[in-house]
Amino acid sequence: MLRINCRPCIWKRYFASKTATDHYATLELKKDATAKDIKAAFYKLSKKYHPDTNPINSVGTSEKFQKVVEAYEILGTEDKRKAYDYSRSPRYAAHLSVHTREQSGHHSTGTRKKQYTDIDIDYKDFEHFQKMNRRKRVFHEHWDMPNEFSSSFAGSKRDEKGFASSHHHYKDNLHTQREKEELRLYQELEEAKKKCKHPLPTFEQLIREEENIRKQNQKKSASIGVTLVVTLLAIAYAVTHMS
């Protein structure tokens, strides 16, 4: 629970933003839709209204595509969705009405009194939400979409010179953490190889070395056996002729 100062002027500016837009209706969803439902609807509608798939009516579809992207930018993020839902709730409207009346009374009496209330979300979310809704979005030929969408229409995203852009690939936090962990292990192995004067042999090398040692031991045993037999025969021959 966070105690904040709900300044009337900021509430007024915030409410002046485009909160009347029903982003749930844009994505053809109900208000209780899950995050999985929101993502699935975004995938479906973004491909449906993407200008690359509608070259004949690119103007009309681009407007719908823009609305779909705007809706997903808000509903696809937990904090932004929470702020959006709160701005459309009766509780928010009641707070706004109270602060509007208080502001009018303060101006008439020439005094100003701070009003505090308890709400269950961070006020920074509202300021960010307001700025995001007021921002003018200019759509151009390179749509600000994950690379996985671009690959469905015309391959990977490309820059002004026509080269495929690698930094547009979408990676979640888990994927990034795995890459960092793999890089760390690789660097540790490389450092260990540099410090080790006698590198550890591979499993196949160990097998071959053991086989060579076994063959050498067999040759030595055979050589000793032959030498022993020859020696015994020589002794027997000498004893026979002496008698």
Automatic annotation (TrEMBL):
Q: Which organism is it from?
A: Panagrolaimus superbus
SMART domains given in the database record: DnaJ
Looking up Gene3D superfamilies in the UniProt record yields:
DnaJ domain
J domain residues: 22-88
**InterPro entries under this entry?**
Apopto_cytoskel_mod, DnaJ_domain, J_dom_sf
Keywords in UniProt for this one?
A: Chaperone, Membrane, Transmembrane, Transmembrane helix
* Spans traversing the lipid bilayer: 222-240
* Pfam families recorded: DnaJ
CDD domains in the record, alphabetically? DnaJ
Q: What is this protein called?
A: J domain-containing protein
> SUPFAM superfamilies, per this entry?
Chaperone J-domain (SSF46565)
Q: Where is this region: Disordered?
A: 150-178
